[in-house]
Write a structure and sequence with these properties.
CATH architecture: Up-down Bundle
CATH superfamily: F1F0 ATP synthase subunit C
CATH topology: F1FO ATP Synthase
Structural class: mainly alpha
Strand content: under 5%
Number of strands: 0
Largest sheet: none
Shape: elongated
Number of helices: 3
Length: 89
């Protein structure tokens, strides 16, 4: 949650600065900040649900952990795509 708050705060600062100067230049920072919110929320949901499932069925904890890491990897790809688009745009 702190990461989401930091991203939103940074985006608000960039927008306030851009509004003061007029919108000139590139707002890729805001785009990447907004693109990082989704994967952050997704990773939190994946990890939370995995912990809940491990608490309910401890005997499958190893399989759940593996599946969780795959889910986190696929979710993190979204943030990496946003990072690449930050440099392209």
């Amino acid at each position: 949650m702190d990461a989401v708050l930091a991203v939103v705060t940074a985006a608000a600062q960039v927008l306030a600065q851009a509004a003061g100067e007029g919108i000139t230049g590139n707002l890729n920072v805001v785009g990447y900040g907004l693109a990082a919110i989704g994967p952050g929320i997704g990773i939190g949901i994946v990890a939370g649900n995995t912990v809940q499932a491990m608490a309910r069925q401890p005997e499958v904890a190893g399989q759940l952990r593996t599946t969780m890491f795959l889910g986190i990897a696929f979710t993190e790809v979204l943030a990496l795509i946003g990072f690449v688009l930050f440099f392209i745009g």
